[in-house]
Amino acid sequence: MPPEYQSKDYWHARFGHETSFEWLVPSADFLQILDPFLARLPTTAKILQLGCGTSDIHCRLRQRGYQHITNMDYEPLAIGRSRDIENRVFGDSVMSYVVADATDFDLGETKFDLVIDKSTADAVACTGSPPVISMSKAVKRCLAEDGIWLSLSFSAYRYDHDGMPFSVQVINKIPTPKMKETDPDIFHYCYLLRPITV
Questions:
Q1: Between 183 and 58, where is the model more confident?
Q2: How far is the C-alpha of 127 from the C-alpha of 190, rounded, in Å?
Q3: 11: pLDDT strictly greater than 80
Q4: Which of 17, 143, 142 is nearest to 80 (CA)?
Q5: What's the predicted TM-score (pTM) here?
Q6: Which residue of 80, 119, 146, 147 has the fewest C-beta atoms within 10 A of its own C-beta?
Q7: 133: which residues sit within 8 A by CB, 6+ positions away?
Q8: Through-space distance between the first and last CA atoms of the chain, rounded to whole angstroms
Q9: How far is CA 106 from the centre of its chain?
Q10: For residues 1 and 31, what is the distance between their CA atoms, to the nearest angstrom?
Q11: What sign does the dihedral 80-38-34-6 (CA atoms) show?
């Protein structure tokens, strides 16, 4: 990823004009990957989306009956855009929106049954392993008992770091479109992360 992805100025400028963008795969495709895990959760489950940006995945989750969704981004303009998307789709806003850094956040006593991100960890990884470890520790702190983290990434090695407080499993490899038949196979990866208990 370009190094500017670590810059708040980059995201502020980008969200100044961007109103809708889906990282790596359309939200409907990501939802299909989430489906087996959502099937185990009641609609009262608490869901946290890290780096919500201008994706509409939160609205797709609400359409499934989930309303206890917290959308987090460290750029206030992204939070505003995300809330606007919900208002546009439903005519109101019932979800929570939080301005916070995915590598260092504290949402108090709230514990989440499911945490999701679409390439947020990729952006965090621009400066190396330490921010990814920090992000994983923050996620672990906010997970409910039996809670899980589902993370979509372009990297086959996104969570290959010493000190990860999670067991990590690739649950889906999504082939990317080819320009030519002879192009190499390139995939995006969906990870299932379960907290390691000590």
A1: 58
A2: 21
A3: no
A4: 17
A5: 0.93
A6: 146
A7: 161, 163, 164
A8: 34
A9: 16
A10: 24
A11: positive
Helical residues (DSSP H) of 3-56, grouped into ranges: 8-15, 27-38
Length of the chain: 198
Query: How is residue 50 written in tokens?
Result: 């890290």
Q: Is the pLDDT of residue 86 over 70?
A: yes
Residue (of 98, 89, 102) closest to 61 by Cα position = 89
Using DSSP, state whether 122 is helix, strand or coil. helix
16's tokens? 């100044």
> How far is Cα 143 from Cα 48, in angstroms, rounded to an integer?
9
Structure tokens at 115: 């945490």
Site of tokens 């963008």? 21
110: Cβ contacts below 8 Å, ≥ 6 apart: 46, 70, 142
pLDDT per residue as tens digits for the range 143-152: 999 999 999 9
Name the nearest CA neighbour of 124 among 2, 5, 44, 4. 5
Residue-wise pLDDT tens digits, 165-195 = 999 999 999 999 888 988 899 999 999 999 9
